[in-house]
Design brief:
Layout: E1 3-4, E2 7-8, H1 9-14, H2 21-43, H3 61-77, H4 87-100, E3 106-109, H5 115-122, E4 127-131, H6 134-143, E5 148-151, E6 164-170, H7 181-191, E7 192-203, E8 208-214, E9 218-225, H8 229-238, E10 242-249, E11 258-264
Parallel strand pairs: 3-4, 3-6, 4-5, 6-7
Antiparallel strand pairs: 1-2, 7-11, 8-9, 10-11
């Protein structure tokens, strides 16, 4: 409900109109107030020019959801995303947990079957996860019942400003169309509390790679959008985050080069 000169709009509309010259004076004051407010609004720059109130759903959203539902069982049985054999990735998550512990809750945005969410929970973080795929979320809830998981697209989730201590985009945002990714990063940056961090991990390279077969040869339909690390750094700094660390992994065929970047929201003062 809006306000007019500090009076709730609903109450103002319902009150009785004054008569005669009082009406003219009131109208004049309202016109002056509105003109002043409009001028102030135009003169104040937006808090973050890359943040939009709404993010259009990707055109291939349904196809990507269906594809991840189709591969979810194989993904889990093949132990994809297992952190056991990846000490450097564990180290990045350990450092992230140490940095954001006590700052606020953490959102694992694109959690898959909850492997990373469960790992962060074991490190003492208040973590929850979202994923586009209902089947992935079913596995996450089964495997990590101590963590809260919900079915949702990262393009539909808009956490309140300064409500989170950390956000994880852990090999889960590379399917987002190129025009969408900067807006998702900016929205999540706005949701961070001062001192909070966004931890982004993804594939490196140039171009877009359509995929038609997934884990275990299952038919899928999604595109992997590749980025050079400096492109991702630019998106994070455009969202007014400070880069904390950049960890690059060279290609190990058939695996492409990969990168993990941690970026922090500046602390107040």
């Amino acid at each position: 409900m809006g306000t007019w000169l500090g009076v709730p709009a609903k109450r103002f509309v319902g009150c009785a109109r004054p008569a005669g010259t009082v009406v003219h004076r009131l109208r004049a004051r309202l016109a002056h107030a509105l003109a002043t407010a409009e001028g102030r609004c135009r003169s104040v720059p937006p808090a973050s020019p890359t943040v939009t109130d709404a993010i259009d759903a990707p055109a291939d959203l349904d196809a990507v959801r269906t594809s991840y539902d189709a591969v979810a069982d194989n993904y889990v049985s093949m132990k994809m995303g297992d952190l056991g054999p990846t000490p450097w990735l564990r180290a990045a998550l350990d450092a992230f947990a140490e940095e954001v512990r006590g700052v606020g809750p953490v959102l694992d945005a694109g959690c898959g079957p909850g492997t990373t969410s469960g790992y962060l929970h074991a490190l003492g973080l208040d973590v929850s996860g979202i994923d586009l795929s209902p089947r992935m979320i079913a596995h996450a809830r089964r495997l990590h019942p101590q963590v809260s998981f919900e079915v949702a697209s990262v393009t539909d989730v808009a956490p309140a400003a300064e409500s989170l201590g950390g956000v994880l985009g852990w090999w889960s945002w590379f399917n987002l169309p190129r025009p969408v990714l900067p807006h998702v990063i900016a929205r999540m940056a706005r949701a961070l509390r001062p001192g909070g961090q966004l931890l982004l991990g993804t594939h490196c390279g140039d171009g877009d790679v359509p995929r038609t077969r997934g884990y275990g040869g299952v038919e899928v339909q999604w595109t992997t959008h590749l980025y050079r690390p400096e492109q991702l750094v630019a998106m994070l700094t455009d969202a007014r985050l400070d880069i904390v660390v950049e960890l690059r992994f060279p290609p190990e065929p058939p695996q492409r080069a990969q990168v993990v970047i941690a970026a922090r929201k500046p602390r107040s003062g």
